[in-house]
Each structure stands twice: as C-alpha cells, then as structure tokens.
Amino acid sequence: MPFRAPILPSKLVNKDVMDKVQNVMDTIITPSWINTVPWNFGHAAAGNLKADEWRIMATVHLPIALISLNVLGLKVLANTLDLFSAVRLASLNNLNQRRVVTYRQYIVRYIEGIKLLYSESSITANCHMAVHICDFMLLFGSIRSWWCFPFERVIGILQRQPSNHKNGKYTVSFTAWSV
Fold it and tell me: Is residue 28 part of a domain?
C-alpha cells in the first residue's frame, strides 16, 4: 500500500509560514562550505529542490524557522526534529559506533511518531530502508563516500546545457592536408 501523506493543518502551509522560512533563509549567515538553496524556495519558479538542497533545508533553515514559528504542536515539532537530527547525523563526515546507534534511534523514533501522529498514513519501503542506512554506514563508512549528490549535480549541469535535441549528430569538418 503506497504512503499517503498526512493531511497537515492548513496553518502550516500558508503564506506566513513560507514568509518566515524565506526570512530565515535571508537573515542567517551560513558558512561558505554550506551550499545555497533557491532564494525563492516555496514558489513554483524555484523548481524542484535537489537532494542536497533538501538536506541543507532540513539541517539548517527549516529547524530554525519551525522552532521560531511555534505553529506546530510540541509532538509534531519533536517528531520533525527527530528526522532533522537523523539527517544531520547521517550527513557527518566522521562516523563511530555511537553516532550510528544514535542515528538509528532518531529515525526509529521519527517513524514511530509518524504512526502515532498520522494514524491514517502507512509506512513505506523508504521508511524501512531509512532504518537500514545504519547497516550501510557500518559496512561502508560515512555516507558522504557513497551518496549520489555529486552525480546529481553533474546531471543538473548537463540538463541545463543547450542542446539541438539531435543526439549523436555532430558537425565534423576536416581540413585537407597537403604534403
């Protein structure tokens, strides 16, 4: 059965909330090593966020905005912060046994919170796999060594390149050489 997204209270998705998120994005100063996200996040013109941009939103901008808004109930906020904390731990360069165990605790608590808060929703294979990411971290090390963000970035660059949509047809010219 596919996951049905929970129906959130309308006050979470109104203009005031998006204005607050955009205000946080405009006013906080982030270190130079943190990539940027579209300045017009939340508008159709911003397009779809890439996975790395979602990671930045979940670990930097959204926690600050959601805590300062105080529109979520405490249980919903705590559940959301469990997810953000799991993402943050999974994104670290250096791993140890304690960090992997803590990641698993956060993600399991997040999934259990989803079941309690949104009982009409069902858990998907993605949620199940999120629990098993800790197994891969133990086997392969930091996820930064095996994630696909660099490939996604190259694909994004290639998609923005002008094309005549004639794959494999190149204009080739040869210069005659005289001996």
Answer: yes
